[in-house]
Amino acid sequence: MRTRILLMLMAGLLTVPLLAADFVVKAVKGTVEVRKGVTEEWKKVKVGDLLKPEDSMRTGPGSSATIEADKRKLTIPEMAILDISDVRQLSQEDFLLKLAMQNILAVPPRERDELSIPSATVLHGDNASKTNAPSYPDTKVGEMELHGARVLFDNSYFATSILKSKETLRTHPELKMNFDARLTVATAFEKMRLTKEAVTEYSLLAKENLPIPQAKKVQVALERLKQGK
Amino acid sequence: MIAGSYTPGTNLEFIEPGSFVFQGDSTRLDNARHITYREQFALGYGYQVTPTVGLGVSARYREQFITDTRFVTELGIPRSIESLNYSASAWNVDVGLNWKPDADWSFGVVAKNLFRLTESELPQDVLSYGLRNVKTLRVGTAYRASSIATVAFDFDTQANGGAGSEWLLGDHWALRQGVLFGGKSTQFFAGISAGVGFSYGSTKVNFSYVHFLNESSRTKPTVQEFLDKGVQDLGYNAFTPSQITLTANISLGRTREAWAKIEYVQILSEVYPSSYQTLAYQPLGKARVKNISSKPILAKVSFFVDQYMDRPTETPRAEYIEPNAVKEVPLFAIFNDAIKFVPSMVLRAAEVIVKASPAEDYDDKTQTRLTIRGRNDWDGNVFSLKYFVTPQDPDVMRFTRTVMSQNKDTMAAVAKQLEKFQSARMLFDEFASRLAYVNDPKASKDRVQFPSETLALRGGDCDDMTVCFTSLLSSVGVSTAFIDVVPLQRPDEGHIFMMFDTEVPAAQAKLISDNPKRYVIRKNERGEETAWVPVETTAITKGFQQAWELGAKEYFDDVEVGLGIVRGWVRLVDLMLQ
């Protein structure tokens, strides 16, 4: 009986971090905002507010916030965006599948014998002189999301840190030269003992024209991984 | 099959010698008795009851002629003799059964002289010289020991029997040899035989020689022996002499020799009219076919349902089956348009036919039951739901053309990147202004309305609305996908909504929304990443904006937080555009 209770408690402890939890705002400094679910607006947050997994938090310049759930405390520094749903651990299986999500979500190629749904051609009027609306490559938003990913890394949420960083770098190609963020991804892979993935990330970085300190870090890491340390 | 035979050589003649010498003048009168039996004509009919069992009935025309002598006396003294001729004829009927369970074994049984159709009988005083008509049961078996050798054995209740073998020399020639035993012979082994056969197409010629070991007892019996043993079978009896036989057989009609047999048929699923076209490519069942011939065969199986198919649908390719082997052959069905109008579930008989031999029709056929569901029935599989999407339906086209035409000016002002997004928004809002969501979980379980029905009825449940809006978007060239959510712990709470491709590049997705949780970045077939927008079609009364918000929230909760796609309880089904 005692063994069973112990096992149940252990199972409980193991499952808690895997679930996205509600957080409570414990401290706020400067401009700290929250965006609820799928709404568009950012609203100021105050101490004691409840943050749901579908919410996001944003800190302005010189600002910071501390949130807590299940005795897990997280401090978000200035100029960062954090999705609350990312503050959780993922099993390695879930993580690797999520990493491949880009391919899972891709529209599959048409199969030869699959019955296609016919579609009619449609014309949207005859005004062909429309100007393209301005595009808004929000580099700043991308950088803030990378900062949020760094917060996850610093708090040992390596899986969600990698996923967030990769997604941000994918949707903000202009941030490709943010070597710090890419180095964080490589290090997170290493921390997760996914050596092959870590070597791939470090090798890609090694091909870039890195500043000397980062180049050195990459070289040391590759040596370390090759020696299996 | 009906057969007839004429065998002029099937006759036996016995002479009982006798003479009378008159006293005094030594005049000698011949009073021999002549007995002749003939069996020259026969008719037969065979019927293949199943591919392995055949029944046959035959009638042999048997004639008997006896020429006797009678003394003509004067004053008690024989002066001369006169001939007395007796004859009798009858049809003796035999019934037989043949069973060929596989390519190697065959078994037969025949009841001979089962009954007689008598035309005339011999008079009582010469009846003892007539043919015997004892009811006899004859059984036999043959076994194909190799591709060229067959051995056979038979015997009957009159203690006649035989054993022999046949050796095939190529496709046309055969050598045969055997022994005969019993037959009221003076020794157990009565004789030996050898022969050669030739066959070409429907023609067969056989030449054989039978040598009896104790010839003298057969050809010169005493009257008493003759009367005791009698003659039952003209082909083989106690008095048959060594003989040469030549037979020619020409089959003028069709012969049916089954090469393949259907062991069973299994229908794998019911037929849903909405997705009937898939059954031309995906098997709806299978037939287990056995090669019952002695050679490898190529078998084709056909499937046919009267009224809903114009002709039987054959398997695309013939299946190679070794002798005695079995193979499961998939069944396909090309239905005609009548199936699209089945109002509710019907049960139909389906015919399954296998054809392997060069025969004109088939080797075996069987019947099975097929359930055809109503036109609106749905099997609950989200992959099948796409067959309810009908973007080319005139009602759908009319709806979208009207909306697009009415909003022509608005569309002209929309940025190029947002055309698809704006089209979807306008169609949804127009859709919302005309239709209402009906929350009927029972109806949504297994029944789906076609878009034209939803538009006509001005409403529907979750599946109906999703299918209808998807059809509307598809008809204006917007790519769509179903999002099928079946929670692991609560499968009864399954739900379907949809998303569409705005074709806005991922890097410009902020044109749609600042919040990335409101769209899904997906790679298309060209490898370009675009933003897809989830829409909860049941929120139709709330307008596009809220239906989008709800769809996006559901998607984020189920896919991002709940890891539904990763864990397999959320599925995306893309609807391909032509």
Brief synopsis:
Chain A is α+β, with helices and mostly antiparallel strands and about 230 residues long.
List keywords for this structure.
heterodimer, A: 229 residues, alpha+beta, Serine Threonine Protein Phosphatase 5, Tetratricopeptide repeat, four-stranded antiparallel sheet, 8 strands, globular, B: 578 residues, Immunoglobulin-like, 4 domains, 13-stranded antiparallel sheet, five-stranded antiparallel sheet, 11 helices, 17% helix, rod-shaped
Characterization of the model:
The complex is a heterodimer of chains A (229) and B (578). Chain A is α+β, with helices and mostly antiparallel strands. Chain A folds into two domains: 20-87, no CATH class; 89-100 and 141-229, Tetratricopeptide repeat domain (Serine Threonine Protein Phosphatase 5, Tetratricopeptide repeat, Alpha Horseshoe). Helices cover 42% and strands 15% of the residues of chain A. Chain A has eight helices and eight strands, in the order αββββββββααααααα. In chain A, strands 4-1-6-7 form a four-stranded antiparallel beta sheet, with no helix packed on it. In chain A, strand 6 and strand 7 (72-76) form a beta hairpin. In chain A, helix 4 (139-154) packs antiparallel against helix 5. Chain A is globular, with a radius of gyration of 22 Å. Chain B has 578 residues and is of the alpha+beta class. Chain B folds into four domains: 1-133, no CATH class; 151-255, no CATH class; 260-372, Immunoglobulin-like, CATH 2.60.40; 382-575, C8orf32 fold, CATH 3.10.620. In chain B, strands 1, 2, 5, 6, 7, 8, 9, 10, 11, 12, 13, 14 and 15 form a 13-stranded antiparallel beta sheet that branches. In chain B, strands 18, 19, 20, 22 and 23 form a five-stranded antiparallel beta sheet that branches. In chain B, a hairpin with a 3-residue loop joins strand 10 and strand 11 (160-169). In chain B, helix 4 crosses helix 9 (462-475).
